[in-house]
Amino acid sequence: MPETRVDPSFEQLLEFVRASRGFDYSGYKRPSLTRRFRRRMDAVGAQSYGDYRAYLEANPDEFGELFDTILINVTGFFRDREMWDFLASDVVPKILEQKGPTAPIRIWSTGCASGEEAYTVAMIFAETLGEDASRERVKIYATDIDEHALAQARQAVYTPKQLASVPDELRERYFHSTNSSVTLRGDIRRAVVFGRNDLLQDPPISRVDLLVSRNTLMYFEASAQAEILANFYFALTRRGFMMLGKAEALQSRSHLFEPYDLRRRVFVRNADIEPGRAARALRPEDEPQQAISAISLREAAFEQAQVAEIVVDPQGRIADVNQPGRVMFGLKSSDVGRALQDLEISYRPLELRSLIEEVAKDRRPRTNKEIAWPQQSGETRYIDVQLAPLVSPTGELAGLSVTFSDVSRFRALQADLEQTRRELETAYEELQSTVEELETTNEELQSTNEELETTNEELQSTNEELETMNEELHSTNEELETMNDELRERTDEALSANAFLGSILSSIHQSVIVVDRDLRVTAWSRAAAELWGLREDEVEGQSFLNLDIGLPVGDLRSPIWEALSGNEVTLIELDAHNRRGQPVRCTISFDQLYTQNDEVSGVILVMTAERREG
Question: How many CB atoms lie within 10 A of CB 79?
């Protein structure tokens, strides 16, 4: 993977954010993270990272704006529909088969944002199990680092646009329309528990059967991804499923998971290995951490021991068997609890029951070496069997441990040793040459493999970066659409107000003329157009005192200025001629036009004209 150039000033800014507010972004990919910081820096006019740190110190409210910008909450119901169809048709039945008909099912949705994906999982299980069974058995834990998004998710209120990808039958069954919004049904909403969780700092949810983490890993650096994947491994049950986003793939990054369907980004926990961080084994919420960690560590050590081992209780039943033991003797987890005498292992490769009775009686270990064990293939395996009593702290016999060490290879090596020594001198030179050739070939293959892995990591990193940029653009587009909708609403309101005002002016029988503080015409009613013969579009924006109408407008200068000064002006009567040239007696009133701040912004002239003789 190509190295990312480290900017010391940016790293110092990240450390300041972590020390000030406890948010550690050091594990995030630098290209995306710097773009989000730069967006806020441009908004506040900060030229450098040092300037922005000073701005944060002086304006604590900016932290909230910064965190909202860093967290790209792009999600949706049934996003990438093919993946959800595969989950419903294949993965969910597998989980139900593993859990049985009544066992509870635990699900963890990380990076849940406003909750759409967590509620999608809830609807899928309700459709598969039935609503009553799903309500009783399924518990979904949805987590995110963004408290604002979690608050929105708990309300489960969405717009019709957000439900566009929900199938019609599910929309009718699980949602209720209220005014301009849509609300999820209460019982489905209560199946999901929302909470804040930092994937790098907080412990994961435990005993999870399905983990949904879509397009979350791609924001983190490789080391942080490895740490998060280790937490996911501990969170899942023995063969639990993990569903990632379409731009995310594990491939060579981790051997903790096996691909279940790589194209649809579904993985299953690799039950045959344990990661090196066994000390962080998960615990149930109601047990002390240290005790559970010790128990988990002992269980992991027993399960992953190098030799096969079974534990028998004092009643002669199988109490436990580790993974090598199950493989060696063809045992299953369901055999735990069965009587030893009912299993083939009780008499093959040797009679165990009498030996167990002797060890239980004497309370001393016993070892039988190189027991011959014929195989169906015709070969014979040789094993060492050791029986040891297990004594409780009170001195009582708690059971017996039986271990089986395969020494077939050791015997074969002994048999071959003499022949090898005899052939060694004559074959040494040829063997040495062959070894050198193999080493050279191995180094070449290793180099080629490393180059391929490096190229694959670079392509994966580039793909994740492109997906990150796509989601950023998606988020920005949604913001622009929201602003456009608001602008359209305001424009509609302004047009409606203008139409309403024009309707009023058209309905008044008196002539109404409005001038601003520069004595320019801003409104001209229909009655004014009928009286003076000029249309509104001919006079709008013109100086009122320069209009050539049958009214001596120059005589109105003083009373208009008086009104603009806030003084009360009495009615004025003037002789004039209307648009037909007929003499009229015009009565004019003057009223101030106020702004929202009670400042005079203009004068309203209301004119009434009556015919006069002469």
Answer: 17
Cα separation of the two ends of the chain: 100
Each residue's pLDDT tens digit, 475-499:
888 889 889 988 888 888 888 877 7
**C-alpha distances out from residue 120 to 140, 153, 162, 307, Å:** 11, 12, 13, 45
CB 15 within 8 A of CB 211: no
C-alpha 374/C-alpha 381 separation (Å) is: 6
Q: Give dist(CA 150, CA 321) in Å, integer.
A: 44
Nearest by Cα to 250 from 224, 273, 217: 217
| CATH 3.30.450.20 for domain 505-611 | yes
Cα dihedral 501, 502, 506, 511 sign: positive
Q: What is the DSSP letter of 279?
A: G
- Specify the CATH class of 306-406 in words: alpha beta
Alpha-carbon distance 80 to 97, whole Å? 26
Q: How far apart are CA 363 and CA 344, in angstroms?
A: 25
* Strand blocks (E) in 100-235: 105-109, 138-144, 157-158, 175-178, 181-184, 192-196, 208-213
Fold of 81-273: Rossmann fold (3.40.50)
Task: Report the CATH fold assignment for 8-70.
Answer: Chemotaxis Receptor Methyltransferase Cher; domain 1 (1.10.155)
* Burial tier of 245 (Cβ tally within 10 Å: 0-12, 13-18, 19+): buried
Asked if residues 75 and 113 have their Cβ atoms less than 8 Å apart, the reply is yes
Query: What would the pLDDT profile of 74-127 be if each residue is shown by its tens digit?
Result: 688 988 888 899 999 999 999 999 988 889 999 999 988 888 999 999 999 999
